[in-house]
Amino acid sequence: NFEKALQIANGLPNAGVTGTINHSVIHQTIEVSVMISQIKEIIRSVLGLVINSANFWNSVVSAITNTFTNLEPQVDENWIVWRNLSSTQRSYFYKILFSILNEDTGRFMAILPIAFEITVDVQEQQLLVITIKDSA
């Protein structure tokens, strides 16, 4: 719940919310690698900071990649909530949290929680083995 999360964040002592986004990226069919690049750019713009750390951006790409691929070993993890919509349509929520504190952020830690809602028209077994070159 976006509004509830924002309410909690605004209530944290010694913290401030500098920006929020509640954004939908909708594609009927897209190669996973293209979606990963698009989401990385959305994250870059939402942060509102210039982050030069290659390690940070590599971690961002890795986390986003795991949102769409390599799902089979993650099936029972707490950061994924699964829903069957039909025999050929599957939906899941995937939660990740990015944080960075370095020379780019100065005295402040930048934190970016993200919840993805992903719906695909594929059977469960096919979804669990999607790669970055697949389209869904």
Automatic annotation (TrEMBL):
Keywords per UniProt: Sporulation, Toxin, Virulence
Highest rank taxon of the organism: Bacteria
Pfam family, any one: Bac_thur_toxin
Any one annotated GO CC term: extracellular region
GO MF annotations in UniProt: toxin activity
Any one GO biological process: sporulation resulting in formation of a cellular spore
UniProt xrefs under InterPro entries: CytB_endotoxin-like_sf, Endotoxin_CytB
Family affiliation: Belongs to the cyt1/cyt2 endotoxin family.
Name by which UniProt lists this protein: Cytolytic protein 2B
Protein source organism: Bacillus thuringiensis
Lineage: Bacteria, Bacillati, Bacillota, Bacilli, Bacillales
